[in-house]
Amino acid sequence: MSTAPTGAPVRVMLCDDSATARGALARVLETDPGLRVVARVGDGRQALEALDKAPPHERAEVILLDLEMPQMDGMTALPLLLQREPRPIVIVASALTQRGATATMAALKAGASDYVPKPGAAGGGLQDPAFRAELLAKVKGWARLRQKPASAATPRPAPTLRAAPRGKLGPGARALCIGSSTGGPQALAALVRRLPRQLAIPCVIVQHMPAGFTAMLAQHLDGLGGPRVSEAKEGQPLLPGEILVAPGDRHLLLRAEGDRFLAQLSDGPPENFCRPAVDPTLRSLIAAFGSRVHAVILTGMGHDGLAGCRALSEAGGTVWAQDEASSVVWGMPGAVARAGLAMEQGTPEALGEALSTLIGRSA
Q1: Rounded-to-integer distance, Cα 100 and Cα 93, Å
Q2: Of 148, 172, 164, which Cα lies nearest the Cα of 323?
């Protein structure tokens, strides 16, 4: 695989039918000396031609691909781009609409590594600081993973849980919470597809995503052959064998009703600049189940989940984290690991296999 020499800027292609968008994206990317825009094209056919004509040292390593374009749209171009050698990383740029969310999940299934939602003018457009930070983190993070030797991407053996004898998670775990952000959709898919269909305990997922996108994420995860996955709805019971995904722009909490625990969706203020956020979900789970909660923190920017994992650890619960080598951004899992809270670290594949063994199937 031909990659940039160590220390050389990551080569990026911009594929968008709007010259204004291409210019704005280039200005964002070129604020980082670790990135270099080597091509700007207006449709998928031009992207393929640019890849084929470029000498190896100028060929794009990461392609930022718009999905809605004339001549050849992004979904048509995507599988063709991924057939090129060396295979580029493709990050799709999606509209913040239901149609954009559906197309984004289809692109991820088809082999795109990640997505960036393009903010509208009301949110500051492409100059929005949160968008700029997300774009830079995803381009650099995926490029870093791409440049690792192939052996580094091989899943490690499933970690063992030092404090959990007899194949149990803590003293009879009753709930699993998975938190993720940047790079999360692919990490979640790698983990969830390794869980048994009849998971013995309920699970909640908090992925930092806009409203509308989380329903498509849940549908994608539901089709992987693991447990049933759905976007959480107000009053929905938390049941063994099922995974609830926190809806975009709502915190996912639990409330007790008799001997049942029901989903409660909150419009409370963002935490760690996020809604949904992992911390309020973990606080709610601790209030409901005490020490009998298991948390897994996957790739993501920032430190959401740190306070909740600290409280969980103090309550006697169990915390795992994705390892640095497999993370697009080792922010959230790194914060948990550096705080000494992660009993185990591993790839999403390894963590999923270990969870499958330790939780097992419901009766």
Answers
A1: 9
A2: 148
pLDDT recorded at residue 40: 97
Q: For residues 338, 342, 346 and 350, what is the CA-based torsion angle, rounded to 10 degrees?
A: -170
Q: What is the pLDDT of residues 95-120, one digit of tens each?
A: 878 888 999 999 999 999 999 988 76
Pairwise CA distance, residues 48 & 351, whole Å: 37
Query: Per the residue annotation, which of 208, 220, 251, 294 is the catalytic one?
Result: 208
Residue 202 tokens read as 């309920």
Q: Is 304 a catalytic residue?
A: yes
Which H or E run includes 190? Answer: helix 184-192
Q: What are phi and psi of 220, to 5 degrees?
A: -60, -50
Ramachandran angles phi, psi of 359, nearest 5°: -85, -40
181 labelled catalytic? yes
3-state secondary structure of 261: strand
Catalytic residue, chosen from 16, 66, 279, 304, is 304
* Rounded Cα–Cα distance for residues 30 and 135 (Å): 12
208 catalytic per annotation: yes
- Does the pLDDT value for residue 5 go beyond 80? no
Q: Annotated catalytic residue: which of 181, 284, 313, 327?
A: 181
For residue 265, give the H/E element and its range.
Answer: strand 260-266
pTM, to two decimals: 0.90
What is the number of alpha carbons within 13 Å of residue 203 lying toward its C-beta? Answer: 30
